[in-house]
Amino acid sequence: MKVTANYHGHTYRCGHAYGQDEEYVQAALEMGFEVMGFADHVILPGFSQYPMRADYDKLPDYLSSIDALKKKYEGKIEIYKGFEAEWLGAFYEDYYRDLLKSGKVDYLILGQHGEMPRQGEFFFFPASQKPKEAILRYADLIVEGARTGLFSYICHPDVFVNWFHYYGEEGAIAARKIAEVAKEMGIPLEVNISCTRMQGFAFENENLPFYPFPSFWDIVSEVGCDVIIGVDAHHPDHYRSPYFDEFVAFCERHHLHRLDRLTFRKGK
Predict the structure, then answer these.
(1) Which of 28, 57, 109, 137 is least crowded, fewest Cβ atoms below 10 Å from its Cβ?
(2) How many angstroms separate the CA atoms of 264 and 214, rounded?
(3) CA 32 → CA 69, 71, 77, distances in Å?
């Protein structure tokens, strides 16, 4: 089954992606995509974190730009508005619910890069001096976030292997927790292709600290939850990746049940 949909794409507004919004659409069309979603790092009110995410005053421009592209390319490609968002507990839960309920965005995807131990602060897990504890905390937050029903899929769930160059017993525990909550909630886990842009990438090599990490996905296969391939586009050329067929083959080798379309969740 060919990859014809991608729901994980960023824009220049976050500060670490490049190219104009329409260039992403044009690249997706060129490569035969039928569905695309913009899911930039969630823009949060009262919180500035550039160049991780855009400041809140950029939200209207983000939404209106995608609306204009959706209208311009109607009949050629389906375009959706979303955000890649961390689960930050009660601090932004109401905001996330309003984004979905109001229709400002079509969906949220859960990309856990850190946590907010207190309002106005953000701690990146890659900065942790205790990676084993950070991996377990990462998994616990994903479980909490997934159970809210706010998120339509879980992004790069094995990203911690890249952060810490470590999997181990804690990685296996995290994989099972994440896979089981994905199965429980009926939401896919993302097989993320952005690792192909990292130096040294090679499939099925557990000596390299990149994802997709085979042992993680063997647990996913055992649990039996759905998966979906995500481009994680930070440049229009990322839609032109030559590796899509290899990722489809990766899913087949690991007996993963792959979806090509996403069901949008709006919360419990």
Answers:
(1) 57
(2) 28
(3) 17, 19, 9
- Decide if 182 contacts 146 (C-beta within 8 A): yes
At CA 35, angle to CA 149 and CA 108, rounded to 5? Answer: 25
Q: How far is CA 242 from the centre of its chain?
A: 20
| Alpha-carbon gap, residue 245 to 164, rounded angstroms | 28
> Would you write out the chain's pLDDT as a tens digit for each of its 268 residues?
899 999 999 999 999 999 999 999 999 999 999 999 999 999 999 999 999 999 999 999 999 999 999 999 999 999 999 999 999 999 999 999 999 999 999 999 999 999 999 988 999 999 999 999 999 999 999 999 999 999 999 999 999 999 999 999 999 999 999 999 999 999 999 999 998 887 667 778 887 778 899 999 999 999 999 999 999 999 999 999 999 999 999 999 999 999 999 999 998 7
State how far the Cα of 7 lies from the Cα of 26, in Å rounded to an integer: 15
**Within 102-153, where are the H helices?**
131-146
Other CB atoms within 10 A of residue 230 CB: 29
CA-nearest of 86, 79, 90, 81 to 61 is 81
- Helices of type H across 124-189: 131-146, 160-164, 168-185
Record the tokens describing residue 25, joined without a space: 């659409």
User: Residue 120 is encoded by which pair of tokens?
Assistant: 């106005």
> Exposed e or buried b for every residue in 93-102, given b needs 16+ CB within 10 A?
eeebbebbee
Distance separating alpha carbons of residues 27 and 29, to the nearest angstrom: 5
The CB density around residue 111, as the number of other CB atoms within 10 Å, is 27
DSSP 66: H
